[in-house]
Amino acid sequence: MKLKKILHSLTSFVTIFALTSGIIITYAPAGAEDLTVDDIKDRIEQIKQDNAQRRDEIDRIEGDITDKQENLDKAAGLLNEQKELVDYYYNLVYYKNQDISTLQGNIDTLTDEIAQKDKAIAKAEADIAELDKENKQNLEKFAQIVRTMYTTGSADMFGVLAGSADFYDLMISSEVVGKISEQNLQFMNELTADMKKLDSDKKLLETDKKDLEGKKTELDTQMTKLLSEKEELDGLVTDAESAKSTYESDYNKYSAAVSELEDQKSNLQYLINVSEADIEAYEEQIKEIIKQQTNPDKEYQEGEWYWPVPGRSYISCNFGWDADFQRTHKGIDIGDAGIYGDSVLASKAGTVIVAETSYIPGYSYGMYVVVDHGGGYTTTYAHLSDVYVYVGQEVAQGESLGAVGSTGYSTGPHLHFEIRLNGEPENPFNYVTMA
Ligand SMILES: [Zn+2]
Question: What is the whole-number distance in angstroms between the Cα of residue 334 and the centre of ligand 1?
């Protein structure tokens, strides 16, 4: 009792799982419903023509891509060269700026030195002026001495001196100085020496300043040259950058053109692939139609139709329009949990006209059996895991045809069961009742 309950829950779980996982049964290309073999062949021919045109177009595009790729490669080469040139010019500008900054440092140093010389010269001039002033005061004193000597009659020659306007000139002339007592002239000589020294210092300073100014003029000339060279480089950089932009926009243009063509090409290739899959599906469809052709002379036997998997009653997909998969379902799917391997029974007596054991995994009916019951009636049993009958075999009603499986276009074990009349799918529930 307990075990039964557990099994029941397990079954419910599996059933719900099977329900939610969605069991897909047969595959038919879009729009292939109810077409004759000739219709399908026309469609295949049309697709082949379309694909031939697409392939021509792809060839044309590939030629175009080759041309554009050449341009693109050329543009890429030019762009790279130009990038190198721009980098090279930026390097030159960098070093030129370093030269300018070094030179500016030297000029600044020289300017400072000149300013210092100016200061020293100004100081020497002030000192000289100071000494000169002192000297003139001393001369005045000396003149006083001389006048005193004269009036007391110490020396006649001083009469001339006393009247002289430019006393200083006369004073430093050795003839006169020699006659003046050392005592009296001592301080005069010291002053004169100091002045001479200052004067010569000042001259040296001025010479130095002149040298410095000469050097500065030279550096200023160098600076003018460097600045003009830099200006020239800046011009080259601007031109190179502008050429680079042009090459860049060329490159982008060709690159965009190539990718657009590549897109066009892969779109066409995609269409070809999709429609080639359609062709395969159409060819399968033709095979199925041809296989299922019934014997027109076979007579239909009245009587009930058997449920093909007795004891199994879970319908995972009904006959007719299936909104989930946007297609018409040509039969019913019986998908009870545990159905895998169940015997599939002939719904009525008849002749086996299809006993297919080879199939493409993921496509169509997988392994399947079709039985001709006469009067244009057939039954189809699809996605089998095994087939027990052969084409041409007469089977009795209820005879085992194969085993339930999940081959072909199927996501789980189930039996896809169809009843057709003259090739047109009928709702099986108009014929069979569950058993
Ligand atoms: Zn089905």
Answer: 8
Q: How far, in Å, is the centroid of ligand 1 from the Cα of 272?
A: 29
Distance from the alpha carbon of residue 317 to the mean position of ligand 1, in angstroms: 7
How far apart CA 34 and CA 14 sit, in angstroms, is 35
Rounded to the nearest angstrom, the distance between the alpha carbon of 108 and the centre of ligand 1 is 98
Is 260 part of a structural domain of the chain? no
**What b/e string do you get for 12-48 counting C-beta neighbours within 10 Å, with b at 16 or more?**
eeebeebeeeebbbbbbbeebeebeeeebeebbeebe
pLDDT at residue 97 above 90?
A: yes
Distance 401 CA to ligand 1 centre (A): 18
Number of Cβ within a 10 Å radius of residue 285: 21
Could you give the CA distance from residue 187 to residue 135 in angstroms, rounded to a whole number?
A: 9
Å from CA of 42 to ligand 1 middle: 27
* Average pLDDT over all residues of the chain: 84
- Whether the pLDDT of residue 167 is over 80: the answer is no
Residue 425: partners with Cβ closer than 8 Å, 6 or more residues away: 319, 328, 330, 331, 418, 419
Rounded-to-integer distance, Cα 423 and Cα 420, Å: 5
**Contact residues for 78 (Cβ-Cβ < 8 A; gap 6+):** 247, 250
Question: How close is the Cα of 371 to the center of ligand 1, in Å?
Answer: 17
Ligand 1 centroid to residue 245 C-alpha, Å: 64
pLDDT at residue number 387? 98
Q: How far is the CA of 348 from the centre of ligand 1 (A)?
A: 20
Q: Domain range holding 362?
A: 2-30+298-430
Which stretches within 152-181 are classed as H helix?
Answer: 158-163, 167-172, 174-179
- Tell me the pTM: 0.48
Using the mean position of ligand 1's atoms as its centre, give its distance from the Cα of residue 275 in Å. 24
State the distance from the centre of ligand 1 to the C-alpha of 38, rounded, in angstroms. Answer: 25
pLDDT at 153: 56
The verdict on 10 and 146 lying in the same domain is: no
CATH of the domain at 329: 2.70.70.10
